[in-house]
Structure formats: C-alpha cells, structure tokens
Amino acid sequence: MKETNKFSDIPGMFEGPVLPVLIKLAVPMLAGMIVQLLYNITDTIFISRIDLSDPSIVGGVGFVFPVMFLAMALAGGLMTGTSSLVARAIGEKNHEVLGVTAESSLIIALLFSMVTVVFSYMFDNEIVSLLGAKGDYAANALAYIRFIIPAAVGAYIVNVVMGILQGEGQVKYIMNIMIIGTGLNIILDPIFIFVLGWGVAGAGAATSVAQFISLIYAFTPFLRKKVSMEIHWNLRNIRFSVIGKILSIGLPQALGMMLMSVSFLFLNRIVTDIDPLALTAFSLCGRFDQAVLMPSFALGSALITIMGQNGGRGNYERMRKVWHSALIAGAISVAVIALGMVLLAPWIFSFFSDIPEVVNYAVKQTRILEFTFLFAMIAIISRSGFQAVGYPIPALIGILLRLLIIVIPVAYFLVYILDLGMYGVWFGLIAGGLVSSSVSLIWLGTILKQIISGKREFRKV
Fold it and tell me: What is this structure's pTM?
C-alpha cells in the first residue's frame, strides 16, 4: 500500500518534561468533558422541572442509565481500541496499519449500531421490566429509552472517529465534537421537553438529534484534510487483522464497562428495596460524581496517546514517568473538586428536588463517598496505562474485582443481613474502590518495570 499517512511529532511527545505534553493533551479533553457535565446538569434541571414533586421522572430516567451505560461501554471500547492502535502504530511509523484503520474501525461501529437498534426496539418493554421499573417509573423509563436509542448509534461512529483523533493527538477536534453535541443538546432540551410538550421523551430526542449533528462535524477534519489520518471510504481497506487488534483492546474495555452496567442494575435493585426515594438521590449523585472524575478521564485519554506513541518508539522509561505524573495530577484534581462538592452538597441537591428525603440521601452520599474517588482515579488512570501498552486484561480484572467480587456481595451482606440501609451500599463501594485501585497500582507498576528491563514485551501492532 502506498504510504499516504505522514505524521509529524507532537512537540514534547518523545523528549523533554512529560507534564507539559500531558496537560496539553488532557486540557482539551477536560474542556469537552466540562461542557458535557454542564449538559448533564442542565438536562437534569430540565427533566426535574417537568414536575419537581414527582420523583418518578428523574428516577425513571435513572432506571435507563444501565442501558445507556452499556451502549456507551461499547462505544468507549471502540474509541479506546482504535486510539491505542493508532498511537502505537504512529510510534512505530507503521503506515500500512494506519492506512486501513479508519475503514476497519468504522465497519465495527456500523455492526454494533444495527444490533443495538434492532434489539432495543424489539425488547424495550422487557428491558424496562428487567431494570426493576414499575408504575410511573416504568412509564417514564420507557418513554425515555425509545427516543434516546438513536443517540447510541451516533455514539458508536463518533467514538471511532474520536479514537482516531485521540491516537494521533488531535484532541482539539475531540473537544469541538463534545462541545457541539452537548451545546446543541442544551439548546434542544427545553424546546423538545416544554415547547413541544414531549416531556421525558423530549429529553431523549434532544440527545439523539444533537448526537447526529456532532457526528456530521466529526468527519469534517478528515474531509478538509486537517488531520494526518485519512478515511479512504474504500471497503477493500477493511482488514480482519486490524479489526482483531482493535477489538483485542476495545472489547475488554467494553466488557469492563458492561460489568459496571450490570453492577448498577444490582445496586439499583438493592437501593430500590431500601427506599425508592434513595434511588432518585442515587441517580442524582451519579450525575455529579462525573465532575470529580472528569480530570482523571481526561488524563487517562492523554495517557493512551503519550504512552502508546512512546512505547511504539521504544521510550519505555518515559512511559512510566508519564503514568506517575498523571497519578499526581489526578490526585490533586480529585481532592480539590471533592472538597467543593462536600461543602456545596446541601445547596446543589436542594436545587434539584423539593423532597427532603431525597436531598438528605444525596448529601450524605456525597459526604461519605466523595474523597474515596481517589481510589477510582487510580483505577481509571492505571486502566488507560494497561490499554496503552497493549495489556487490557488486567484492567478488566480490576473492574471485575471491584464490582462483582467486592461491591455487590459486600453491599448485599451489609444491607440485607446487617440491615445498614444505604450505608451498606456506600461502604460496599468504598471497599471495592480500595481493593481494585491497590491491585491496579501494583500490577501496572510491575508490567512497566518488566517492559523497561526487557522481561516483558511492549505489544506492538
């Protein structure tokens, strides 16, 4: 194949201080995530304003969260697998792989889209019932899921494109994609929910329309030749070997996120048995927890690019330095944001609900759990490190250990046996985070040490 892909190195990528390039790649990702967080907050405001006295509205949308989390898990897996492959191939200067990556990854996204649409619309009633929604909660959940499913289709394709851009280090375009999608969502929400009178269904429809418009923009950098990677739109560029390499990284990532979705299904059931109002608070807290972890996800995204490219170039010691710098930056950011959430919790949650019990549950959860997100930060950044060096299975095991082996059994025991109520759920989450972060920290440190010493291979493309 003709080598049409010529890449120029990002300044500071392969030499010099690691923190500046880490920040350079993380900040645009963080900016896009902040806009997405603003959307989540705004979306919650609009949904809650349908009727502040009706907890089934926010709660019904909360029931759908595991389903959307499942779709986003697959989309995120595609992004991670694609970005890891692109980053390592750029480091190795493997233009043959780079020339066929776009078509190979996009065909996976199209197949995932077809399966998601067909399955979701055929079994929507069964899905809502399985999630445990009843009565008004079920009605609102069903209205929401039917209109938000198209957003999952757009997400698969958008995440593949963002994976290509991330692997190359073109994060400003990823930021633009996020801003366009979330900005449009904020504008469309009140129109669809209140002006058109669609209620909860309008919130889902607004998300779907915004997602497809951001998808259109996502292809413009390639069509206008603003990035080095090319999309040739040629089916002959589809390579099963490249698809396999993408899925070898992406599927464990997606499976790990699916395990999170399954764990939320079990946790929702447990929380509902404690108090349906506690589920509304649990759903509210879940949206705001993203604020604490956003810098960690942004640093993790930058980590995949920097560690992948440096590993492909043979700069193994630099990979470890980048990981250490990301952990320090992540710890500082989590501590600062968690402090703000703890101090402001009573005012934040009283804005979203007029029900004292919901606000009380949410404030307690925030004050107990927020600083324990330091454990989650370690797990997130280490997971990106595993993916960057081509070893995704330890990241999957870490998620399995945290959720299904520790969190769910511990929460079940504390709630149903010791009758600790929501404290049992919260203590289970703390126990899982502590154990999984410790294992991830030691495991990735060992792998990097072995790669540096030559006892283990960096997995090239």
Answer: 0.81
